[in-house]
Amino acid sequence: xxxxxxxxxxxxxxxxxxxxxxxxxxxxxxxxxxxxxxxxxxxxxxxxxxxxxxxxxxxxxxxxxxxxxxxxxxxxxxxxxxxxxxxxxxxxxxxxxxxxxxxxxxxxxxxxxxxxxxxxxxxxxxxxxxxxxxxxxxxxxxxxxxxxxxxxxxxxxxxxxxxxxxxxxxxxxxxxxxxxxxxxxxxxxxxxxxxxxxxxxxxxxxxxxxxxxxxxxxxxxxxxxxxxxxxxxxxxxxx
Length: 239
Known about the structure:
Blueprint: H1 3-9, E1 21-22, E2 51-55, H2 64-79, E3 83-86, H3 92-103, E4 108-113, H4 117-120, E5 128-132, H5 135-145, E6 146-151, H6 156-170, E7 178-181, H7 188-199, H8 205-208, E8 211-214, H9 217-226
Parallel strand pairs: 2-3, 2-6, 3-4, 4-5, 6-7, 7-8
Antiparallel strand pairs: 1-5
């Protein structure tokens, strides 16, 4: 990660941002205070393949298609030798994508703040699980580990996460793919708002175009691969 990006993401703050990796959680973890002893950047990495950040809901949504498309995307990522970095939960679409990738023999990295352990219930069988102190640390770590960013349907947290990495792209802090997976037009309102911002002169067409809208899993995979340096392999440089 370059010096400018490091400063912007806050990785050189006074408190070390990354927590000690957990290899598993006991059955009563959700009621215990998690071990949040930090270890700085000396992380024990177990992943061996590029990771795609998946932003999605801790709920499953009201329509079966949201879950179905999340499963299909997770399967395709694993089949193409791409891992996932996500928010570490075992519930909702978040838990579904993790379960699916793991079932395919893929690699999944979870990052969850300690205060969310009870609400989101951390996934117990991930390749890597990090318990951090704040949402800012969670997002910074996910951004640094990811080679691309994809938003599935989700709520306020999902909106904020994908728009933040889009903002970082606008500020030239990274050149990684940013994708809105517009399952059954879920993101049409946001797409219209971005177009409105362009029309009103608050967002340049060039910066708006950094957010790629995809309607199918195949389009998502193509959008990720189009940003590769070499055919068939993702960029792996950090934010």
